[in-house]
Amino acid sequence: MKLCVIGTGYVGLVGAAIFSDWGNHVTGVDIDEKKISRIQKGDMPIYEPGLSEIVLNNIKEGRLKFTTSIAEGMKDAEIIFICVGTPQSETGAADLSAVWAVAKEISNHLTDYKVIVTKSTVPVGTNQKVKEIILENLKSDVEFDVASNPEFLREGSSVEDMKDTDRTIVGSESEKAFKTMRRLYEHLGSPIIECDLRSAEMIKYASNAFLATKISFINEIAQICERAQADVSVVAKGMGLDRRIGSAFLNAGIGYGGSCFPKDVAALYKTSTDQAYDFKLLRSVMEVNLIQQFNFINKARKYYGSEIHGKVFGCLGLSFKGDTDDIRESVSIDVIEHLRGLGAKLKVYDPEAMENAKKVLGEESIEYCKSEYDAATGVDALFVLTEWSQFKSMDLFRLKENMKYPVIFDGRNLLDKSAVEGIGFTYFAIGKYTNGVKSIHEKNDVYSSAVLKNGH
Ligand code: UGA
């Protein structure tokens, strides 16, 4: 099939690459000339395992090309995918200006039947408006259909996720559009759910919001475990083996971040209030996520008291999760900024996100290190902030030798508590009791997001 993919961010670039790898002829379009010329040389603007090989190979095979012209990209395409960004606006709602601009531009060049598909995460009702914009701006009487085809890729594993998807969602009002989309996806063998446009749009938000809810739920269980001296990792394992619950997204930590969950949860909450409904559960999910980070920092504040000022901490991980260089809404960055605000000096390391982090953190009180062991050298304590697998297998003896004091604050429960404590570390994790330290939680030690926002 001939396809056009507009937008070369995570969704568009991975989508264009994999569609071409399936044997389709794909043109990727982006207004950013620099980005396009980088991609054409195989220099990916994002770190995504396996992506550059697929892009280069399909360019070589003549199935994948890139351009800055929508007119050129969509010329022979049967399907046009809209994959532009929908960032969070000041109201919490998604900013759809890029989607509207692309819809208008498509209508200017539409000369024969095409299916116009939104892959960007967009609130309920957006595809209907895309259809209206195109109808209003059409230059001639051309037939077209719109469809909603949300994606469920995770950064860091998006190549695999796209090839091995659990399901494909296609929303449309037209049987002709369903037929076209089936030709693209049915070889995957996984279920294709065909539904109306609005339900397809809601499936995406409901899925992300549910996963975020699972994380906030286990994070609250972790808070109780800490106080009641239970171990949240064991609790999550015991829960997750129940197939009705499932073990995914039950890792307690310092909260979810990234370019999707925070924005999509906020956007769904905004949709609910727009529909005159107060989605109370989702409000709590957001609040718990913020509190989780504060509770973690508070462990260090309580352990060191006023002496936290001037302490040197090693910080492992800057990206919002492992296997990505993306620092958007990264809780690690928030924690580092908070510790710096308390007067600590920080030695930071991340396998991929150092350059991105430098741009937002700057140099003040921060030393950028070459490795995890370098970041641990001479420090008062080590903070594990991102779940990179290489941190899991660190040589604990070497770490201990390098550090000034053997203290670890593990915000991702990445390390093995008994192994770490066995060699003499004081180990603070999430939802676990710390050996040798009297509970750091005081009665009524519950923080509200209002307190957090005031920076206490
Ligand atoms: C998420 C969804 O998982 C994808 O299905 C969706 O397509 C994507 O958003 C999107 O809407 O584009 P992503 O943001 O790449 O993918 O990352 P996740 O792997 O979902 O992790 C999100 C955050 O939750 C990270 O900060 C991670 O550290 C945190 N997390 C995840 C936990 O704290 N605990 C867990 O058990 C899992």
Briefly, what is this?
By secondary structure, this protein is an alpha/beta fold.
Shape: elongated
Radius of gyration: 24 Å
Give every kind of bound small molecule, once each: uridine-5'-diphosphate-glucuronic acid
* Topology-level CATH name of the largest domain: Rossmann fold
What is the CATH C level class of the largest domain, in words?
Answer: Alpha Beta
CATH-wise, what's the superfamily of the largest domain? NAD(P)-binding Rossmann-like Domain
Features:
2 domains; NAD; 13% strand; Rossmann fold; 6-PGluconate_DH-like_C_sf; binds uridine-5'-diphosphate-glucuronic acid
Topology:
Elements: E1 2-6, H1 10-21, E2 25-29, H2 33-40, H3 51-60, E3 64-67, H4 70-74, E4 79-82, H5 97-109, E5 114-118, H6 126-137, E6 144-148, H7 158-163, E7 168-172, H8 175-185, E8 192-195, H9 197-228, H10 232-240, H11 261-274, H12 280-304, E9 312-316, H13 331-341, E10 345-349, H14 354-361, E11 366-368, H15 372-376, E12 381-384, H16 389-392, H17 396-402, E13 407-410, H18 417-422, E14 426-428, H19 449-453
Parallel strand pairs: 1-2, 1-4, 2-3, 4-5, 5-6, 7-8, 9-10, 9-12, 10-11, 12-13, 13-14
Antiparallel strand pairs: 6-7
Helix pairs in contact: 1-3, 5-6, 9-11, 9-12, 11-12
The structure holds uridine-5'-diphosphate-glucuronic acid.
Uridine-5'-diphosphate-glucuronic acid binds at residues 121, 151-155, 208, 211, 215, 249-251, 253, 256-258, 260-261, 264, 320-321, 387.
